[in-house]
Amino acid sequence: MSVETVRLTVGQAIVRYLANQFISIDGVEMRLCGGGFGIFGHGNVTCLGEALYEHRDVLPLYRGQNEQSMGFAAAGYAKQWLRQRFMICTASAGPGTANLLTAAALAHANRLPMLMLCGDIFLTRLPDPVLQQLEHYGNPAMGLNDAFKPVSRYWDRITHPAQVIQTLPAAIATMLDPADCGPAFIGLPQDVQGWAYDYPAELFDKKVHRIRRQAPDDREIADAAELIKTAACPVIIAGGGVQYSRAVKELTDFAESRQIPVIETIAGRANLVHDHPLNIGPVGVTGSDSANTIAAKADVIIAVGTRLQDFTTGSWTAFDKSAKIISINAARHDASKHMSLPVVGDAKLGIRALDAALGRYHAPTGWTTLAQAERQDWDRYVEANVAHGNRPNSYAQAIGVVNALCDSRDRVVTASGGLPAEVTANWRTLDIGTVDVEFGFSCMGYEIAGGWGARIAQMEREPESDTIVLVGDGAYLLMNSDIYSSVLTDKKLIVLVLDNGGFAVINKLQTNTGNESFNNLIADCPTVAEPFAVDFEAHAASMGAIAETVANPAELAEAFKRAKASQKTHVIVMKVDAHEGWTLQGHTWWEVGTPEVSGSARVRAAHAEQESARARQRKGV
After folding, report:
1. Residue 531 pLDDT class (50, 70, 90 cuts)
2. Whole-number pLDDT of residue 428
């Protein structure tokens, strides 16, 4: 019996396959791939570009301005869709593809799906060495694209058209796997892209995907329940995995029925609204006094959907050394960290199973009351911190203004410098899943690009809401061209550029460890001949945005109202003080390397103070 086939090039087969992959989300079928971002060059324009053109109506391709920012936009898109959908990024062979490395690392650290389809050198090697090829004399098979192996969850190079039949399903399976989710990279040699093959027609049949929910092991649930029953001071750490599992309701119901306080990671910052009585605040280095006080006193910690990175754990000083950790996580690697009692499985199913196994247990009333009192104290601190009056402009004040005026479903996006800490500590969550603080890779330049990707997704889901980007002057100067992208594509952003005259948060770390202010603030750079202020308003306006500069938080409030009413990307610029106005409370210890030997008394004193906190550090693997 003959098998029906269709003759296609490699590029055509890849795009046709992607166009026929769907996912069921809340009973609604939609394309798994939302389209993509692309910059064409000789490595991808003639073959893959031809195939993408034929499918432009169902897989829209957004023209990028920078390959790195394309990857950031794809990450922002995936976050907004809770990892249920992804975008492709296509770049040419050589430097275009190399520019995607940082974005791939960001997606890898944050466990986000993104499919990179990148040009590669000729498989035949007949024209070698070709334009932009890296030559390795003893290993001609090695090329630039091999650099993506450490920053991809799935990596392959198509060396024969038939490989597509195996590679594409494997890449998609990786991107949809809750445990292994991350970026997939497929190298496409320039000649192979155009080679034809008789593909089985059924490869291109419509396929509807569903994300797997792995049930936890009954014995692991039983062990976790027995441990919780012994707890006098339990606490739940809610991570970003709670949202990816769509387990917010289950976590909330579990916390309420057991009266267990909840503290949030940076990625899990919008698991509960700010005024939920069991929301005790953000934990860790950029956290709150309330959450960190409770974390330090807890005897049993139920970590749900978190990889327990150092900003959550205060480099493992945030918890008492004797505290026991239960970790519910789809990824075995994360569930087993620091001698945790692992519950490997889906967060939604894990919480349900744990709740069923706990009988009548609930946290002691005195413990929950103590946690709530700590949160009330923190709320009073934040209220004073974001207030503006007769004092220098600060990040916290700007955050307070926006927070008070935004709609509940607006999405706030930030990523690097001092803003992630200030947003995490001071933002009062108005609705679930509305905060994107990219601190998995803490990547400068994500802010505007990630905001653009989030806005594309947001307009597919909640077009009446806004995407609000908070960015410092340093990150703005690093990557700003997606202001232009947002204008070109009619994907409105509200961008707040908060100018503190350089890399102020690293300057703060520098001076707090006894060092002199050096090479971070523009005013303190010895190689700067004449410091001057960038006209961010004029720069943003030159890219087509509505732009204005305000002098203080009161003017910011009026400008923000105008931005909300506008249908076009709106950029608001305000200077903030580089030295005053930082959120000073709420921080745990964070391990950074300091000089053991120095000619500076201040550096030596700072080193001694840093090392003194090490006694609290939890040892483990």
Report:
1. confident
2. 98
pLDDT tens for 101-150 read 999 999 999 999 999 999 999 999 999 999 888 889 999 999 999 999 99
Q: Do both 134 and 250 map to the same domain?
A: no
DSSP letter assigned to residue 469: E
Structural domain includes residue 615: no
Read off the amino acid at residue 529: A
0.85 cut: is pTM over it? yes
Dihedral Cα 512, 513, 516, 519, nearest 10 deg: -90
Residue 310 has pLDDT above 80, yes or no: yes
Question: Are 240 and 268 a contacting pair, CB within 8 Å?
Answer: yes
Residue pair 497/471 in contact (Cβ under 8 Å)? The answer is: yes
User: What count of Cα atoms within 13 Å lies in the side-chain half-sphere of residue 584?
Assistant: 6
Q: What residues make up the domain containing 131?
A: 5-209
Same-domain check for residues 448 and 481: yes
Section 438-451 average pLDDT:
96
Q: pLDDT at residue 507 above 80?
A: yes
Residues 202 and 229 in one domain: no
For residues 422 and 489, membership in a common domain is answered with: yes
Between CA 218 and CA 224, with CA 220 as vertex, the angle to 5 degrees is: 115
Structurally, how many domains does the chain consist of?
Answer: 3
Q: Tell me, yes or no, whether 394 and 309 share the same domain.
A: no
Contact by Cβ (8 Å): 227, 341: yes
User: Does 588 reside within a domain?
Assistant: no
Query: What is the per-residue burial (b if ≥16 Cβ within 10 Å, else e) of 64-89?
Result: bbbbbbbbbbbbbbbbbbbbbbbbbb
- DSSP secondary structure letters along 23-76: EEETTEEEESEEEEEE---TTTTTTHHHHHHHTTTTS-EEEPS-HHHHHHHHHH
From residue 141, give the alpha-carbon distance in Å to each of 11, 133, 134, 215, 468: 22, 11, 10, 42, 45
Euclidean distance between CA atoms 161 and 255, whole angstroms: 52
Residues 333 and 449 in one domain: no
> Based on the number of CB atoms within 10 Å of its own CB, is 3 exposed (0-12), middle (13-18) or buried (19 or more)?
exposed
CA–CA gap between residue 134 and residue 156 (Å, rounded): 18
User: Residue 530 domain-assigned?
Assistant: yes
Residue that terminates a domain, selected from 347, 377, 407: 377
- Mark whether 405 and 350 lie in a shared domain: no
CA distance 578 to 600: 24
**CATH code: domain of residue 83:** 3.40.50.970
Rounded to an integer, what distance in angstroms lies between the CA atom of residue 91 and that of residue 116? 8
Domain end residue (candidates: 377, 410, 435): 377
> How many whole angstroms separate alpha carbon 163 and alpha carbon 512?
55
Looking up tokens 């519950």 gives: 343
Alpha helix (H) residue ranges in 183-263: 218-229, 240-244, 248-258
Residue 26 above 80 pLDDT?
Answer: yes
Domain identity same for 292 and 250? yes
CATH number of the domain where residue 356 is located = 3.40.50.1220
Q: Is residue 621 part of a domain?
A: no
How does residue 620 score in pLDDT terms, banded at 50, 70 and 90? low
